[in-house]
Amino acid sequence: MLQVQDVDLTPNPQALKFILNEKLLVRETRNYKSADDAVNDPLAQGIFAIGGVVSVFYMDKFITIEKDPKVAWGTIQRPFVEFIKNFEKANIPAETDTLQMSNEEETALLKKINEILDTRVRPALAGDGGGLEVVGLEGNTLRIRYQGACGSCPSSIRGTLVAIENLLRREVNPTIEVISG
What we know:
Layout: E1 4-9, E2 15-20, E3 29-32, H1 42-48, E4 53-59, E5 62-67, H2 74-86, H3 108-127, E6 130-138, E7 141-148, H4 154-171, E8 177-180
Parallel strand pairs: 7-8
Antiparallel strand pairs: 1-2, 2-5, 3-4, 4-5, 6-7
């Protein structure tokens, strides 16, 4: 049975990270900005059914919920804990085979970038209830999309973006540019 073990604050005042007693996913991250986006995911759909929820992000053993600023956490937390306790983990859609990538995604530069993101950036973002998706690489411009608590957090929108760009410039290529969107 799924249970919420702990709740962590995130740098985003409108998002909380709920740590669970069991893994939900092994490899993937799931990020939904609306109930319409989550139409094929019963876990996310159930969370969106709680009034005031504006985004859902989950991976590994946690779920990050972002709420409407006009809604108090007290109206979300208790229904969420009850929902999780009664949710059947088997209803989470199966993870897709991430080994099937296009030739473009397998480029040496993108591989190196993802290795650095996997070891140095994504764990830190996950610690704050968020994640990062690489949208694409065109020349030396890397397009990323923040997930979970990072999606609308003021510090990720500028500060973290600059830190990621500086890290990749040091470790990979001094001309890399990182943009969010």
